[in-house]
Write a structure and sequence with these properties.
CATH class of the largest domain: Mainly Alpha
CATH superfamily of the largest domain: Tetracycline Repressor, domain 2
Shape: flat
Mean pLDDT: 86
Number of domains: 2
CATH topology of the largest domain: Tetracycline Repressor, domain 2
Largest sheet: none
CATH architecture of the largest domain: Orthogonal Bundle
Strand content: under 5%
Structural class: mainly alpha
Radius of gyration: 21 Å
Helix content: 55-70%
Order of helices and strands: HHHHHHHHH
Number of helices: 9
């Protein structure tokens, strides 16, 4: 028998084609016919590897999370949150068109859940109560989503002129090229300081210490 004309299709092939499609176009472009066309196969053949659009979106998250370089040994917890936030921002900024697909979806992929487990372990070691672990991590994620979306908006937006803006908005026209990075660093610092204040208050209340 002759050898196959192409390597057999894999689940990873499907997911990487889906991610490339969203990266190059936009979230609304994601569909099984479009993915199949990129792979040079018929649409139904994808269902040998994925159950449908929902699994494809979860798989896209897996691929992005796999690009995040998380160092589980970073301490103290504030440095770990900073490191995690910067790593996630870099990964999602590289794939910012995926954010509307992923936002608000429950996290189900094993790789993403493993990242949660690492973050929860660091926060537990620092004394955070269990009921605060998920809200704290998700509040960082919300901040990161907005930061990544700002980067894609910067790439596609039309520059404003003085005639477009009311008087007094010169900082918008004269913003430095790295102002989104400044906004990210300023916001991240404020977020972590707020977390520190919250943890201090929780410890004080637990010890019965007056303010």
């Amino acid at each position: 028998m002759g050898r196959p004309s192409r390597p057999p299709l894999t689940r990873e092939d499907v997911l990487r084609a889906a991610l490339a499609l969203v990266d190059e176009e936009e979230p609304d472009a994601l569909s099984t016919p479009r993915i199949a066309a990129r792979l040079g196969v018929k649409g139904p053949s994808l269902y040998n590897h994925v159950s449908g659009r929902e699994e494809i979106i979860d798989g896209i998250r897996e691929l992005i999370v796999a690009e995040v370089d998380l160092d589980a040994g970073v301490r103290p917890w504030t440095a770990a949150v900073e490191s995690w936030a910067r790593a996630y921002r870099a990964a999602f900024a590289a794939h910012s068109h995926t954010i509307p697909l992923l936002a608000g979806r429950p996290v189900r992929s094993p790789s993403a859940l493993y990242g949660y487990a690492q973050a929860f372990g660091v926060l537990r070691d620092a004394g955070w109560p269990e009921e605060y672990l998920l809200p704290l991590v998700q509040s960082v994620e919300y901040f990161l989503s907005g930061s990544a979306l700002a980067l894609v908006d910067a790439a596609s937006g039309v520059p404003l002129s003085a005639e477009d803006l009311p008087h007094g908005l010169d900082p918008i026209l004269n913003a430095p090229p790295d102002y989104r990075d400044i906004a990210f660093e300023t916001g991240l610092s404020a977020l972590i300081r707020g977390f520190q204040d919250t943890l201090h208050t929780l410890r004080r209340d637990a010890a019965g210490t007056p303010p």
